[in-house]
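so my prof wants the structure for this chain in the tokens format not the other one, which i didnt know existed until like an hour ago. anyway here's the sequence
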Amino acid sequence: MNSLFRSNLTKFGTFLVAGFVFTALPAYGKAGYAVVKRVVGQASYTSAAGGGALKEKMTLFQGSRITTGPGSYVDLDLGVNGDALRVEADSTVSLTMLTNRRVSNRRSVVNTQMNVTRGSVVANVVRKLSRSSRYNIRTPSGVAGIRGTCIQAGLSGTIALVGQVTFTPLAGGGVQIIIPGFVMTAGANQPVRAGVAQVRGVAQTAVQSTANAGTAQMVSTSVQAFATAVAAIATDAAAQSVANQPAQQQSQAIVEASQQAAEQIVPELISAIQQAANNAPPEIQQQVQTAVRAVQAQAQQVAMTVAAVAAGHTAANNGATPQQAQQIATQAAAQTQVQTPTATPTPGAPPTPGAPPPPPPPTPQQVVATIPQAVFTPPPPTAPNAPRVVVPPVEVIPPVPVDQNIVGPGAGPPPTPPPPPPPPPADPTGQPVITGILGGNRTANNPVAN
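here's what i got, hopefully its the right format
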């Protein structure tokens, strides 16, 4: 009797333990990994299984340490654990945690942790992570937490390009929020505004890394997000420089700065992708070339939209009403003309037979009609001493439609654009009137207030 009882108790205990293990394991998730997509220069790795020179198509797991030499870099595809990651020159980075767990058909919980002990990394998380996910980059000065973000993090500091970054200094002092266009330098007490050139450099690096590691649609989305962020940062800086000037100088500065920024950053990003395409290894050559064609076909539309969003958002931040911001955005878009860089053919790559020519650039009305109204809603007041948010959230930026004639990742028919907005009222001379933007009345041909 006792032996039978003990036997049943043992079986029951075994069942409980097995059930606990079965239910507990999913909480930890399955092991993630990083695929090496591009190696330039000298790069090596160490792991529990050994080490050696890094080569393209290799797979790295949790616990791997990556080291790059002078003038070298490595592009990794983290997949569901965080998309594109570049380990920059003279850097040492450890992948301390890579796990993921699918909780539904459309949502996963990931845990990505890395430790940068030398140099820096550029991370571009295109697919925003769930609230329960963790993506932390540890540096000697603190830990940067990201979710749907593009940042550069390293020994010298952490800079945000798209999305907000939480930064926890290891020396204490509380969590800091780094907004787009700001940098938390090593040893600093709070973020400061980054230089426009510094932000542009991060954007070029990130889009090139994404071209090597991601799909064509990821690249298209990143180009518009990065260009919008850079243009908004540059336009806000221009507006700050004329903050004490009359209203006509302020409005003119906003229009010109957004136009110039869009005309500069869009070709720069396209050139960065072209460089990636010209030097891509054979296994990713097609996907990178597809990304180049997709972005080139939409370059004018992207530039006009970028200029409009940057101008409208900056105007709203400087006191314009949503209607006034929409009107100044229209003016900025109408004045923007981008020169698309000519692609350099890849040596040995035959031209695509029957490739359709890129579509003609859309009219200003088509572009402005795609600008979300939420961009021009005046932001809520910020707390004292808090930096102003000058970049619109990534979520409100419409993705760049990919030409339906392009064959490759991310291809598909473009969405139907919404109807154009109604024209502004006309003055006695027959010209549309733009009223009240930063004070005064303006016409479509004269954006400066009278």
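also thought this was worth mentioning. Residues 4-28, 344-370, 372-418, 420-450 have pLDDT under 50 and may be disordered.
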